[in-house]
Amino acid sequence: MGSAKSLGFTLIEILIAMLVLSIVMFIGSLSFSTFSQRWQDDMGSFTQEVANAKNLVLLQKAMNGISNYIVRDDKDEPVYFFKGNDKYLMFVTNNAVFNTDGQALIRLSVTVRSDGKQQLRYEEAPFKLSPLLRLDIFPDANYSQILLTDDNIRFNYYGWEDQKQRAAFYEGELMAPKWMPEYLGEKSGMLPYAVNVTWGSNEPIIFPVPNDNAYQLIYTREKSNDA
User: Which residues of the chain have a pLDDT value below 70?
Assistant: First the structure.
């Protein structure tokens, strides 16, 4: 009678199986770690995009309420209040984000963090505490919030440089509104038609500005002269 075959595993077979299992577990663990990190990065990016979108909706609310607000300049003349360049913007709104009772002065400014990233800061000064009366005397802001953090945040303004250009356009001359890196209401005598905010390599977000009533400024000057 021949000897029966062994039904177990040899030590070498067990060691080889354990080695293969260890390699599979290592690859699986590495793959899961990589996937988990990418998932966290993607979720963080998604969360930031959602926060940016929410903040831009709040900004749109404030810009939709931009007011034809008139103040006095250093010569005591009535002028429109709207100040903006590529890194800051100031205007009066009827739709403040934090203060829902009356008008407020809005200041948007671009600041640079220590790591080189730029931030768009929103500041709000409600007029119920201190109204805006002069061109260069501003009430203190009571509310502040960072709207977004990115690279190369900037503003542009679409409109006329002055009333003469707009009048020439309506008289048939080839004179059209244009995008400008600076817009001052006291110089143009009106509000811009639109404001855009751009950051990084994104397409600009364009905020239309309610049509201005330039006749209000003329009327104010007439009343001032009659006084």
Answer: 1-9, 30-46, 48, 211-227
H/E run at residue 28: helix 11-64
27, two tokens: 């690859």
Q: Report pLDDT for 31.
A: 67
Across the beta sheet with 183-184, the strand order is 143-150, 118-126, 104-112, 88-93, 83-84, 183-184
What's the pTM?
0.73
Q: Are 93 and 108 in contact (CB under 8 A)?
A: no
**Confidence at residue 223, expressed as pLDDT on a 0 to 100 scale:** 43
Task: For residue 193, count other CB atoms closer than 10 A to its CB.
Answer: 16
pLDDT in tens, 38-58: 656 555 565 767 777 888 888
DSSP 17: H
Please tell me the distance from the alpha carbon of residue 150 to that of residue 47, in angstroms, as a whole number. Answer: 14
User: Are the C-beta atoms of 179 and 155 separated by less than 8 Å?
Assistant: no
Q: Are 135 and 73 in contact (CB under 8 A)?
A: yes
In three state form, how does the secondary structure of 75-142 look? CCCEEECCEECCCEEEEEECCCCCCCCCCEEEEEEEEECCCCCEEEEEEEEECCCCCCCECCECCCCC
3-state SS class at 206:
strand
User: How far apart are alpha carbons 49 and 15 in whole angstroms?
Assistant: 51
Q: Which of 220, 225, 217, 223 is nearest to 68 (CA)?
A: 217
Contact 109, 45 (CB under 8 A): no
| Longest CA span, the chain | 133
